[in-house]
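Why do we care about 3D structure at all? Because function follows from shape, and shape follows, mostly, from sequence. That is the central idea of this module. The next example makes it concrete: a single protein chain, its amino acid sequence, and then its structure expressed as tokens.
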Amino acid sequence: MKRSLSIISLFSILLTACVGDPGPPGEDGVTIVGQSFEKTINLVAPDYWTRFEIPLNIVLNEDDMVLVYHLIGVDNDDFDIWRLLPDTVYTATGEEFQYNFEHNFDFVDVFIEAPSTFDYNSLLSGDTLGQTFRVVILPVDFINSSNLDLTNYNTIMQYVQ
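And the structure:
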């Protein structure tokens, strides 16, 4: 009788240990976990700052991660080259500035920031006009469950609708 009770107790413990949340989806076949949109903007004097609205069809939860990528060119195979913000740029005069961003539930602010000694007159029109940015929104649970390199735009976009 004791042996029967021991077996039943062990069986119930094993069943209880297997109950729980299934956890976040894995990387096998998951293609839609994030959302994205692009904006082409001008960052001009006096503030070198632009605000744009997050589209209403984009769902942004409090714990989602918002990433912004800057289109910096096109490679030899005609593929876009994207760099994660903040993105540091060095001018021909040896100065440096950054493209950076802030966001809330409704807006994304993209701006140029630099040391107080930076001469904004040294910015070229190619640094300020027609700059394209892609905003990517990913669930933080997915980010925490994966070994994603957030700086690798192509890897991130495999998980974005």
